[in-house]
Design a protein that fits this description.
about 325 residues, alpha+beta, Alpha-Beta Plaits, 3 domains, 5-stranded antiparallel beta sheet, 16 strands, flat, DUF4283 domain-containing protein, At4g02000-like, DUF4283
Length: about 325
Amino acid sequence: MVPGSGDGGERVDSTARLPSQVARPVPLTKQHQSRPRSRSRPPALISNEPRPWTSLFKAPIGSPDLSLEFFAPEVQAEKKIAVYEIDDSAELIETWSMAIVGYVVGLKISFFPLSSFIKTRWGTSAFDLHMLENGFFVCKLYSEEDLQRVLEGFWTIRGHPMILRRWSPDVRLELDSLQSIPLWVSFQGLPLHLWSRRFIAKLCSTLGQPLYIDKTTAAQTRLTFARACVLVSSDEDLPNEVFYHDLEGNTRKVHVSYSWKPQRCKSCLSFGHANGACQQTPKPINKIYRPRQMPQQQGEPPLMVVEPVVTQTSEHFDSQG
């Protein structure tokens, strides 16, 4: 008989656990004590006022000012035209005042060979080089001394001359700008009383647009020749002598030499290639004659005629008919 199972006896819980099976509270470790309790975020505030669509494109607070303002274009023949003014380039002068614009005549050069050339031949490692799609490049230097030294030199890459100019807002980075290029010219045996910058500019003006003289000419430490950079045009000849009048009205001559004489095309009036290599020169029309039978009335003998059926201006011909 089980104790407590009778009437009036104490009821015993048959599910009672042994002392080793009683659940005990688990002490919290430092990791559990330091873990913050998860809290639900408060709901975002929704404004009832409508926001303009343009507000989505504003720069975030603290970012540099990259905004643009609206300028009303001119309207001509139902076309909207933006107008360039000299003030539009004012902010660029400080950034690119130490930059050189260059072009290698007759050679399409890539970034790494040109960068290596600048390091080894120009002797400078502090520069920023930018290649443009039309073959020009822009090299930004960080030393006025390096910039002047590079501009005063004559440089070639694989035998191809390099045209260099200091950047300014009026420098055009276009291939048709090769209709005028800067050249270094030397006036040999110039008398001492003609070594003024003013008269050297007059001599340069007989060749083109005077640009500047080199440091040695400015300091007059070399009196064998005066050297200056001149912007020459492709439609003008490069003579070996220039002339001037002295105080008595006598005509005197000065011998001129050039750092190099570029090839000049008389067809397109630009430098960089000779007449025979010009792509704009029209090629002679070549004709191929083939006999063709003309339709005749019934009973008449066939009539054969010879006429051009193919005309091409290139070296390759495509048959027609």
